[in-house]
Design a protein that fits this description.
Structural class of chain A: alpha/beta
Strand content of chain B: under 5%
Oligomer: heterodimer
Number of domains of chain B: 2
Number of strands of chain A: 10
Order of helices and strands of chain A: EEEHEEHEHHHHEHEHEEHHH
Structural class of chain B: mainly alpha
Shape of chain A: globular
Helix content of chain A: 40-55%
CATH superfamily of chain A: P-loop containing nucleotide triphosphate hydrolases
Distance between the termini of chain B: 49 Å
Largest interface: A-B, 41 and 38 residues
Radius of gyration of chain B: 26 Å
Number of strands of chain B: 0
Number of helices of chain A: 11
Helix content of chain B: over 70%
CATH architecture of chain A: 3-Layer(aba) Sandwich
Order of helices and strands of chain B: HHHHHHHHHHHHHHHHHHHHHHH
CATH class of chain A: Alpha Beta
Chain lengths: 256, 537
């Protein structure tokens, strides 16, 4: 499980995350929503120990990421939205290197990689022979997801994980998330794609300007706020009102 | 679990691979071959450089000989280390790959430094290879010197790495990301300049009386790191009495231990913070000021007159922005241009500058020849970027011809790099010589760089920032072009100096201007005739 208490981070004079408090129990998929610059990625980076919070605590399975970073990092897998990899390594070299960082030897890692290879329909020859710099965006994303799940983490943090995946892979990955949650993994899913979040996540938290606006089961939240969809609820909460009318007005200005 | 290598070993393996393969390779085999050939040539070159201190064995006492070897090692291997450290330590996307995994920042730093030290040790051994052989003929030395010297070279590399890493970490901590990136460019440029200056002054220093016999108790010995490690050499191999050399040797070992502790232990943990800061998107205020200044400059005369086409103007802005803001562009561009600016100045300081051709002819010829290469070199580097995929926008937008993008970039290079470089060289030369002549000679040099800036577009369609960094670089044609432009520039410079001596400088300049205009007309036709496929190759 994840336990966040009063997590705060400021960059210069801008508060990116403002006293965020959240709990994500074991076996739950939490959708983290918010407009651009809301503080989603900053929150995830603090949860992964990549950024030190200015105040507050974040516990990963009860381990404080600030005081025991290495222990906490062993428990989590992270898919960053950048999809960054070492492009001069082959996919296999990269995954074996990542496995070794989690203390998984080559003999143990290879069959695990093979499982992911089969699941994502990745070609073994490509994985071992081609450098990551030559992979397509979707293939690279599959490698990054594999690298996040290879060590069987208890907590999985995902930042726009479907970006670049084809429809088949995306469907498969969403189903995988549900199975992982059933098996007791705690998952935080940050995305802008609201309908995917609505379908995949058990619970959503919407943040804006670093503050938690609402937190609950999507259907309940929609009902409570008198909205018809999660999208409507999101636009209402994040101050985007009359989007259709604004778009129509704007389109007129584009016409000669 | 017992057969799992330690995290540091895994990281060392990773960084060793990346060092030899490059970070953004596509074709594993081809890239590896090119890199290996390049490395082979580097090692061969280092062996040749090592000849100078190796010969010192025949006339120097053991401490002076050992110190000469360490001086050359410090200069070449350590400076190579300094030039690689910045790019290896601070990779923008590395935080997202590694920092959320169970890897301590200090482990990451130690692994990178171990790889860099190992690599620079290989370079250092190539430099010292001949010296290790000639040490057997060094009067007063012992046969153990060769073994001991390998150990002290390792110590010297550790000293250099610790010092460099400490400087980078301290700078990052004190100056913040944006200033740090500029500092990184400045450091790498300075390192390149130091190496060039070193190549020029090294033979003169080695020939100096000072180095023939070093007094271990002198201020020079106590302040100069090469002498510290030379003292460790002679102390351990028993070539000199311990009472004479223990102090500089102790300073060497003590300084290495202190620096290593400060760099890898004390500040090692803060390395992760720095690594993350490099990737952060927030920019401080001064850069925002720069952002506004550039478009307003372009909107005003004379740049507005010079950049009439809107596409050309945007290509000018794009190139200018990368010259000022992009860390990777700055890191590769400025250190590679530095030699072109420094070599003419150094040549003038030395005896060669007082050659028979006379100062005017010499200055004009060399300054012009090197300045003419500036736009070609810059354009070649500006064609490559880690953001090369963004160049797709040139293909899916209705750009009528690639020439517009080429001209915009070309003019940015002439405006911000080539012309200021000419006047910088000319001013330094004028100050050194106490004459106005170099400033006068800068005028034909400006004509030369304007003409030579066309060259990259004469042989193929040229688009700014459109190729990956690891794409094949200079081929045979490229070398021929470099040579040809340099030869033409030397001839033009020599002619300018001769005309100045005959009193016909201004008429010559007018003729030169006319010729430059004619050449530009001709080049413009060649560029316009090269078809714009408007599709990716």
């Amino acid at each position: 499980m994840i336990s966040i208490r009063g997590l705060t981070k400021a960059f210069g004079g801008t508060i990116a995350v403002d006293a965020l408090t959240l709990d994500v129990p074991t076996g739950q998929i939490l959708g983290l929503l918010g407009p651009n610059g809301a503080g989603k990625t900053t929150t995830l980076k603090m949860l992964t120990g990549m950024l030190a919070p200015d105040a507050g605590t974040a516990l990963i399975q009860g381990v404080d990421i600030r005081t025991h970073p290495l222990e906490a990092k062993r428990l989590l897998g992270f898919v960053p939205d950048s999809g960054a990899v070492y492009e001069a390594l082959t996919g296999l070299e990269f995954l074996l290197m990542i496995a070794a960082l989690y203390g998984i030897g080559e003999q143990e890692a290879r069959p695990r990689i093979r499982q992911f290879l089969d699941f994502f329909d990745l070609d073994g020859n490509t994985l071992g022979g081609k450098l990551l710099g030559a992979y397509s965006k979707g293939m690279r994303r599959k490698i990054v997801i594999t690298a996040a799940l290879l060590h069987n983490p208890k907590v999985v943090l995902l930042d726009e994980p479907l970006d670049g995946l084809d429809a088949n892979a995306a469907v498969g990955f969403k189903a995988l998330l549900e199975s992982l949650a059933k098996d007791g993994k705690t998952i935080v899913y940050s995305s802008h794609v609201l309908d995917v979040v609505e379908r995949v996540c058990h619970r959503v938290a919407i943040i804006d300007k670093g503050k938690l606006l609402v937190d609950g089961v999507p259907a309940d939240l929609i009902k409570q706020h008198g909205a018809s969809t999660l999208e409507e609820l999101f636009t209402r909460l994040c101050g985007i009102t009359g989007a259709a009318a604004r778009a129509a007005e704007f389109a007129k200005t584009l016409l000669p | 679990m017992s057969n799992v290598p330690s995290r540091e070993k895994v990281l060392r393996g990773l960084f060793w691979k990346l060092l030899f393969r490059g970070r953004a390779a596509h074709d594993a085999a081809g890239h590896k071959r090119r890199k290996q050939t390049g490395l082979g040539l580097t090692f061969a070159l280092y062996c040749v450089f090592g000849l100078f201190p190796a010969l010192a064995a025949f006339w120097c006492q053991p401490l002076a000989f050992a110190s000469s070897l360490h001086m050359v090692t410090l200069l070449f291997a350590s400076l190579t280390l300094a030039s690689s450290v910045g790019t290896m330590l601070f990779v923008r996307e590395e935080a997202e790959i590694l920092l959320h995994r169970p890897v301590a920042a200090a482990e990451l730093l130690r692994a990178k430094c171990a790889v860099l030290i190992a690599f620079s040790l290989l370079l250092a051994l190539a430099l010292n290879a001949l010296g290790l052989v000639t040490s057997f003929w060094n009067e007063g030395n012992t046969p153990f010197f060769a073994i001991v010297h390998v150990f002290t070279t390792l110590l010297l590399m550790l000293f250099s790495a610790a010092l460099i890493v400490l400087v980078y970490n301290v700078c990052l901590r004190w100056f913040g990301r944006e200033r740090f990136e500029n500092l990184l460019t400045l450091l790498q440029t300075l390192v390149t300049i130091l190496m060039i200056v070193g190549v020029q002054i090294m033979p003169r220093l080695l020939d100096d009386e000072v180095l023939r016999g070093v007094d271990p108790s002198s201020a020079l010995a106590l302040l100069a790191p090469p002498v510290w490690f030379g003292a460790v050499d002679v102390l351990l191999c028993g070539a000199m009495p311990p009472a004479q050399v223990w102090l500089p040797a102790a300073i060497g070992v003590g300084a290495t231990a202190l620096l290593a502790w400060l760099a890898f232990v004390k500040l090692g943990a803060s390395y992760g913070v720095g690594l993350l800061a490099i990737g952060e998107s927030a920019s401080p205020a001064p850069e925002r000021m720069q952002r506004r200044r550039l478009p307003s400059l372009v909107a005003r005369a004379p740049l507005r007159w010079w950049l009439r086409d809107p596409i050309e103007r945007q290509a000018f802005l794009l190139t200018s922005a990368y010259l000022v803001r992009d860390r990777e562009t700055k890191l590769k561009l400025y250190p590679s241009l530095a030699p072109l600016l420094v070599i003419p100045v150094i040549s003038v300081i030395g005896p060669a500058g007082r050659g028979k051709a006379g100062p005017q002819a010499f200055l004009a010829t060399f300054a012009l020849a090197y300045a003419a290469i500036v736009p070609i070199q810059a354009m070649m580097l500006l064609q490559r970027s880690e953001h090369w995929r963004a160049a797709d926008s040139f293909y899916f937008t209705p750009v009528p011809h690639w020439g517009l993008l080429f001209h915009g970039a070309r003019k940015a290079v002439v405006c911000w790099l080539a012309v200021p470089a000419i006047f910088a060289i000319a001013s330094v030369l004028a100050a050194l010589r106490g004459q106005w002549t170099p400033l006068l000679m800068a005028l034909p040099a400006v004509l030369t760089v304007v003409v030579s800036s066309w060259v990259p577009g004469l042989f193929a369609a040229w688009l700014p920032l459109s190729k990956p960094n690891d794409a094949h670089k200079v081929g045979a044609l490229g070398c021929l072009v470099f040579g040809g432009v340099m030869f033409a520039a030397i001839a033009f410079g020599g002619l300018a100096a001769w005309m100045d001596r005959l009193g016909f400088f201004w008429p010559f300049l007018v003729v030169g201007l006319g010729t430059a205009l004619l050449l530009q007309q001709w080049f413009a036709r060649i560029v316009a005739a090269r078809r714009w496929r408007n599709a990716l190759d």
